[in-house]
Write a structure and sequence with these properties.
Shape: globular
Distance between the termini: 26 Å
CATH class: Alpha Beta
Helix content: 25-40%
Mean pLDDT: 90
Radius of gyration: 17 Å
CATH superfamily: HUPs
Oligomer: single chain
CATH architecture: 3-Layer(aba) Sandwich
Order of helices and strands: HHEHEHEHHHEEEH
Number of helices: 8
Largest sheet: 6 strands, mixed
Structural class: alpha/beta
Length: 242
């Protein structure tokens, strides 16, 4: 690990006042090829754009749950082509998916919650993606979700997926940004985005678990809408939930 874990809280306070580009530069300077951008949405492609403008060829991975919108697959392909970047696509273990579907069907999450399905389709593939890394970069923002992301720091020690023997650092360069800042950047720099955004989708996940939001609703209100509002995390950022 390049960074001393005890220095991370002070670093988080220092970088809270710096630009996302400075945080990205720090991540790649400290970890080089051992850090990757976790890519799925608008914030993440902003990070890819920023990294390439810094002269960095970022390592990028994404999670294909097998339940994504067709528009999302086209978006992933468009980003890879636009930035000439290889996106490492992580798939769930087929045996685990098959066992769940055989036991509970394709839509069990509407009855017993999304955690089991997300654990198989998202969390386990993320664990494999993170295994060779010393750090990862996410597009989390503090204003994204009531109750789960309001205290997300710019840089943190990932206690969910790291261990004392193998510490893992998590960079959230856009944590201090608003949705408006993200979209201002996208428009200014002509950054590719998922066409579903133009149809009322703000936060986009799997097709059965995502719907457009209504005027005045929070941006993650369209995710797992049948569940309690303040604990909408799939497990990728489980450390946010107290």
């Amino acid at each position: 690990m390049a960074l001393d874990p005890t220095s991370i809280p002070a670093m988080a306070a220092d970088y809270a006042t710096k630009s996302p580009q400075e945080t990205l530069a720090l991540a790649f300077r400290e970890f080089g090829g051992d850090v990757a951008i976790s890519f799925s949405g608008a914030e993440d492609v902003v990070l890819i754009d920023m990294a390439t403008k810094l002269g960095i060829e970022p390592r990028v991975f994404t999670l294909d749950t097998g339940r994504l919108h067709a528009e999302t697959y086209r978006f992933l392909d468009r980003v890879a082509s636009h930035y000439r970047v290889d996106i490492d696509v992580m798939f769930p273990q087929s045996a685990a998916v098959q066992a769940l579907v055989r036991a509970k069907g394709l839509f069990s999450f509407y009855k017993d919650g999304h955690k089991e399905c997300c654990g198989i389709r998202k969390v386990e593939p993320l664990v494999r993606a993170l295994k060779p890394l010393g750090a990862w970069i996410t597009g989390q923002r503090r204003d994204q979700s009531p109750g789960t992301r309001t205290a997300v720091p710019v840089v943190q020690l990932d206690r969910t997926f790291g261990t004392p023997d193998r510490p893992l650092v998590k960079f959230n360069p856009l944590s201090e940004w608003s949705s408006r800042q993200v979209w201002d950047y996208i428009r200014l720099h002509d950054v590719p985005f998922n066409e579903l955004h133009a149809r009322g989708f703000i936060s986009i996940g799997c097709e059965p678990c995502t719907r457009p939001t209504l005027p005045g609703q929070h941006e993650r209100a369209g995710r797992w809408w049948w569940e309690e509002e303040t604990r909408k995390e799939c497990g990728l950022h489980a450390g946010n939930v107290g």
